[in-house]
């Protein structure tokens, strides 16, 4: 099923997982998927070599399992930067054989250990290629505070519009900790005629290293109240985790009340986090949008 159709009916809740490290058995993800499936998310997306390491078959296997073992619609991420056209064609064929209808088409992060193939320098090129070579619902990434490489949010939005014009059916945002950035971005995107569903990406932060990594990787702003909370609990792991989850729930309550299209939860393969957020907002998500 195409996940873009879900937005017509409700406020969508989706989860993101990543494949286990090459040294870990694939079974480590099975228990996570089993637990996540109890919460009946609208779909689960599976990352693909985030950071540049290429583990594509694992992504396809997990996306297949999400759909066919756990009965949840799945999305396979696909970063194009390190692939040539024939390799992408092969992956699309494999996705089709695995019954996966939804692809998150990405440029991918530039990794010094891999030489870009230059067939897909921007995600928009990959979106067009996927549309020409298969019948997929194509999702794209978007950045409420602007992509790290973009000089201005406006420039990034112009490129985003091009990505949507290339055939992107739906967008998922990078994580953010200040909802006002998302609302401003949403207003600007709608004003520019970007009219596909846009999900808000939310990551409950459960430890300090994680947030430091995220800030350097994504360049997101941390609001004062978030920093104060983290400083207060940094030496108390359980309190830090609960504060991070409570902060994320607060963000989700506000976003859902403002009628966003959907919430994409970066679960970090932690079903406990997903359970806590789901318990807090499940009834809110059932209230029809106005
Ligand atoms: P693009 O849309 O191509 O944008 C990249 C930059 O190029 C932006 O600054 C944009 O403004 C600029 N740009 C775009 N088009 C043009 C143009 N025509 N001319 C000039 N400049 C242009 N990475 C992974 O490796 N694996 C994953 O599984 C993964 N999952 C992700 C999931 C989500 C929801 C998000 C938000 C990101 C994910 N990423 C993943 C990270 C992503 O690959 C990086 O953020 C990457 O740096 C940009 O990818 P993109 O698809 O947004 O690129």
Secondary-structure map:
Blueprint: E1 12-17, H1 27-38, E2 43-46, H2 56-68, E3 73-79, H3 85-97, E4 102-106, H4 123-132, E5 137-142, H5 153-165, E6 170-175, H6 179-191, E7 198-202, H7 208-218, H8 224-233, H9 237-257, E8 262-266, H10 271-286
Parallel strand pairs: 1-2, 1-8, 2-3, 3-4, 4-5, 5-6, 6-7, 7-8
The structure holds flavin-adenine dinucleotide.
What does this structure look like?
Helices cover 46% and strands 15% of the residues. The chain is globular and about 50 Å long. The protein has ten helices and eight strands. Helix 8 packs antiparallel against helix 9 (237-257) and helix 9 (237-257) runs parallel beside helix 10. The mean pLDDT is 94. It has helices spanning 27-38, 56-68, 85-97, 123-132, 153-165, 179-191, 208-218, 224-233, 237-257, 271-286; strands at residues 12-17, 43-46, 73-79, 102-106, 137-142, 170-175, 198-202, 262-266. Strand 3, helix 3 (85-97) and strand 4 form a beta-alpha-beta unit. Strands 1-2-3-4-5-6-7-8 form an eight-stranded parallel β-barrel, surrounded by four helices. By secondary structure, it is of the alpha/beta class. Flavin-adenine dinucleotide binds next to strand 3, strand 4, helix 4, helix 5 and strand 6.
């Amino acid at each position: 099923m195409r996940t873009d159709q879900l937005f017509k009916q409700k406020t969508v809740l989706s989860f993101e997982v990543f494949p286990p490290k090459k040294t870990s058995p694939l079974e480590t993800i099975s228990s996570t998927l089993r637990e996540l499936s109890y919460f009946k998310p609208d779909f689960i997306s599976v990352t693909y070599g985030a950071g540049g390491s290429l583990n594509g078959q694992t992504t396809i296997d997990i996306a297949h399992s999400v759909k066919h073992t756990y009965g949840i619609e799945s999305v396979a991420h696909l970063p194009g930067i390190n692939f040539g056209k024939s390799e992408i064609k092969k992956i699309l064929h494999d996705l089709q054989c695995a019954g996966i209808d939804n692809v998150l088409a990405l440029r991918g992060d530039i990794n010094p250990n891999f030489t870009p193939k230059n067939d897909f320098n921007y995600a928009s090129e990959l979106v067009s290629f996927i549309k020409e070579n298969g019948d997929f619902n194509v999702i794209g990434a978007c950045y409420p505070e602007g992509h790290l490489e973009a000089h201005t949010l406006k420039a990034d939005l112009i490129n985003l519009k091009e990505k949507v014009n290339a055939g992107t059916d739906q967008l998922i945002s990078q994580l953010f900790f200040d909802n006002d950035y998302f609302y401003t971005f949403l207003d600007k995107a709608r004003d520019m005629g970007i009219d596909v569903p846009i999900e808000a990406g939310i990551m409950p932060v459960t430890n300090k290293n994680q947030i430091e990594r995220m800030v350097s990787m994504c360049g997101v702003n941390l609001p004062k109240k978030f920093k104060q909370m983290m400083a207060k609990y940094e030496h108390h792991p359980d309190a830090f985790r609960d504060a991070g989850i409570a902060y994320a729930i607060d963000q989700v309550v506000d976003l859902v009340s403002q009628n966003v299209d959907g919430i994409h939860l970066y679960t970090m393969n932690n079903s406990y986090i997903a359970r806590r957020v789901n318990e807090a907002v499940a009834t809110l998500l059932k209230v029809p949008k106005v």
